[in-house]
Design a protein that fits this description.
Layout: H1 15-20, H2 23-33, E1 41-42, E2 53-54, H3 65-90, H4 104-123, H5 159-177
Parallel strand pairs: 1-2
Family: Belongs to the HARBI1 family.
Region (Disordered): 131-154
Subcellular location: Nucleus
């Protein structure tokens, strides 16, 4: 099910910029500042690491706890990516090789309508097989992006350092669990 869509931004706007202005980002930040330390969203390498937003670890070596964390992170995110693939296969106007030849507002309304119709199809089990032709959301965030938002200036409240600390705690917990 699609639970949230924001079609206010054109496709050229970076995911991290949309994240910075999102209600969920503000909500999770507030919860974190209020002491909630056990809730995370998963983002690909295009998002900034924050204590409430876990991203992959770049440039990891094989067979390390960090590589295991990345594998679990990516496999978990792939559930969402497969959902995007199904949505785009069901409504081909959403595919990257298609262009909605309408105003930005009208295009946004079409995207919202596709999300609602997708959910209706899910509710009524109107499922069918869709061919995957490689137009899913970006799944290639393994560990190769050298201009990661982690490298941006550390904010004054040091959320990047806290995010790194929390992510390392998760890596350590996973490494202990597999021993």
């Amino acid at each position: 099910m699609i639970t949230n869509v924001n079609a206010k931004y054109p496709g050229a706007v970076h995911d991290a910029a949309i994240w910075d202005s999102s209600n969920i980002q503000r909500h999770l930040k507030q919860k974190y500042e209020d002491g909630r330390r056990n809730c995370y969203l998963l983002g690909d390498s295009g998002y900034p690491l924050q204590p409430w937003l876990m991203t992959p670890i770049l440039e990891t070596r094989a067979n390390t706890p960090e590589a295991h964390y990345n594998s679990i992170h990516i496999n978990t995110r792939n559930v969402v990516e497969r959902g995007f693939g199904i949505w785009k296969a069901r409504f081909r106007c959403l595919r990257k090789d298609r262009v909605l030849h309408y105003s930005h507002d009208t295009s946004g309304m079409i995207i919202y309508a596709c999300a609602v119709l997708h959910n209706i199809c899910r509710i009524y089990n109107a499922e069918q097989e869709y061919e995957d032709n490689g137009d899913s959301h970006d799944n290639t965030d393994q560990t190769t992006n050298s201009s990661h938002p982690d490298d941006a200036a550390i904010p004054s409240n040091d959320f990047l350092t806290e995010g790194r600390f929390i992510r390392q705690q998760l890596v350590n917990q996973l490494s202990t669990a597999i021993r």
